[in-house]
Design a protein that fits this description.
The protein is mainly alpha-helical. 64% of the residues lie in helices and 2% in strands. It has twelve helices and two strands; from the N terminus they run H-H-H-H-H-H-H-E-E-H-H-H-H-H. The protein has a two-stranded antiparallel sheet. A hairpin with a 3-residue loop joins strand 1 and strand 2.
């Protein structure tokens, strides 16, 4: 049994366990629910499920140390010293590289038109756009992942989790991001098949810096204005994921 097959079976086992457990993983959705505007409030009065809050807060505190001592200074130096044009090109390249994941998940969600649009964007930007550095097509790139796919088909988020370094998550998104989505990533397959671990680590490092550099200022503002920074981030993450799953609802939220 290959390692990838074992990971896939583990993913399916986790999904089944949470689906059949007492935790409120599945949530019924209706057209009225999807049409309702999600308020960008930093409170958790909407039925937050955080049974491991003590552990989560400890991990959150560890992440804050990493953010303040490592990621924050690097992200600020990146924003300060690298021209905006170069930063935009890096973001475009990384987004283009992850496009196959979004295409696969759009197909799994039954949105063939969105998958086709992303495929055209991938082909055009990968060729004329020099590997995606230049976004020739323009417009908004709608990223999709397997956690969103499960949400589209009715699976609730389950309990709240804070992962070391990676931050807010839940069982549904954890399975999607780390176990299922890599199957849809040609770059990940190429790295695994050729043993280029250093390339993989480099890509992950650049992705982390690029992502954190885009939110470091907003996070600082939330930290300064929140009575409970942990609860604020928890609420904003959950609302953001709901918005992404609903496809089309707009929220005035920080891009955390």
């Amino acid at each position: 049994m290959t390692l990838r097959l074992m990971k896939f079976l583990l993913a399916m086992l986790i999904v089944v366990v949470f689906a059949t457990s007492g935790a409120p993983v599945f949530a019924e959705t209706s057209a009225a629910d999807k049409a309702q505007t999600i308020l960008a409030a930093t409170s958790d009065e909407d039925g937050v499920n955080d049974p491991f809050e003590r552990v989560n807060r400890a991990v959150f505190g560890f992440n804050e140390v990493v953010h303040e001592s490592v990621l924050g200074p690097v992200a600020r130096a990146y924003n300060r010293n690298v021209p905006q044009t170069v930063r935009t090109g890096v973001s475009n390249f990384l987004t283009n590289l992850s496009s196959p994941i979004s295409i696969a998940n759009n197909l799994l969600q039954g949105d063939v038109l969105a998958a086709f649009d992303l495929f055209v964007r991938l082909v055009v930007n990968s060729t004329i756009g020099i590997g995606g550095i230049a976004d020739v097509v323009g417009g908004e790139h709608r990223s999709e992942d397997f956690g969103q796919t499960l949400g589209v088909w009715g699976m609730g988020e389950g309990f709240y989790l804070v992962l070391p370094i990676f931050g807010p998550s839940n069982p549904r998104d954890l399975v999607g991001k780390f176990i299922v989505d890599p199957y849809f990533d040609p770059f990940a397959h190429w790295v695994d098949n050729t043993g280029r671990d250093t390339v993989s680590y480099g890509k992950q490092g650049v992705s982390g810096i690029d992502e954190f550099a885009g939110v470091v200022d907003e996070l600082n503002q939330i930290r300064k204005t929140s009575v409970d920074y942990y609860a604020a981030i928890r609420s904003l993450y959950r609302q953001k994921r709901r918005s992404e799953i609903s496809n089309g609802e707009t929220l005035d939220l920080p891009p955390i």
